Amino acid sequence: MNKKILISLLSIILAACTVKPTQAPTASAPYMDAEEQSIYAAVLQKLYAASNYVIMDTTATGLMGTQDMSSTLDHVLLNMHNFAMETADSFRARNDAAYPLRSDMEIGAVYVLLTQNDKTQLFNQNQDGWQLFYEKYPDAPGITALSRVGFNHALDQALVYTGTQSQWLAGAGFYLLLKKVNGGWIIDQQVMTWIS
Fold first, then answer.
1. How many domains does the chain have?
2. 10 Å Cβ neighbour count for 74?
3. pTM of the entire structure?
4. Structural domain contains residue 23
5. Helical packing angle, 116-123 and 129-136, nearest 10°
6. What pLDDT, in 10s, does the model give residues 7-50?
7. Domain membership flag for residue 2
8. Counting Cβ atoms within 10 Å, is residue 73 exposed (0-12), middle (13-18) or buried (19+)?
9. Which of 13, 76, 77, 109 has its CA 20 to 30 A from that of 175?
10. Residue 144: CB partners within 8 Å, gap ≥ 6?
């Protein structure tokens, strides 16, 4: 009898002492969503400072909707310093495909999500598509694309892509490395990957 009690007690103690490794929140966790939205807000405010935005409704990592980032990301990382490799790995994993952006994001400004079909209809008319665009969205800085955000494990470093096209030959795309300072996100470094 004593042997059974001793074994039971040891089992309970061992179970209580077992520590599970901590992990960064998954991509669908509410905390991660809030951090990603905070980064979008910081990036849009710093780069464009507009009162409203037209954002493509799916994520992209390159020129207005492209998703092929392998060589571009390698170039970007060669031109950045003090980044955690886990941040780049997270970025790659979270941008393995185009993902829909949420229509209820809190990014500190009014925004409209533009579908590829809406964009095609707007620019395939027998008129200047950009004129039609600015008639419909007069205060927008253009059409903006955003990637998903890659994070380090401590969630104090992040990597994101953003690009905005504002006319036929006016636009640029950037990879931005951000760091968390006093609870807010600031842009630490940026690398331009295209300009028109």
1. 1
2. 10
3. 0.80
4. no
5. 120
6. 554 445 444 443 333 333 344 455 678 999 999 999 999 999 89
7. no
8. buried
9. 109
10. 44, 48, 53, 54, 55, 56, 162, 163, 164
9 domain-assigned:
no
CA distances from residue 30 to 33, 55, 90 in whole angstroms, order as listed: 5, 21, 17
Cα separation values, 38 from 18, 108, 143, Å = 35, 9, 20
| Identity of the residue numbered 16 | A
Which of 141, 193, 137 shows the shortest CA–CA distance to 167? 141
Q: Is residue 18 part of a domain?
A: no
Q: How many residues does the chain have?
A: 196
The torsion of the CA quartet 140, 141, 144, 149, rounded to 10 degrees, works out to: -100
Q: Please choose, from the candidates 161, 154, 143, 151, the residue with its C-alpha nearest in 3D space to the C-alpha of residue 75.
A: 161
| CA atoms of 12 and 10, how far apart (whole Å) | 5
Per-residue confidence (pLDDT) for residue 41, from 0 to 100: 96
Name residue 69's amino acid.
Answer: M
Coil vs helix vs strand at 13 = helix
d(CA 78, CA 191): 10
Containing domain of residue 137, as a range?
A: 35-195
Q: Cβ distance 151 to 35 under 8 Å?
A: yes
pLDDT at 53: 96
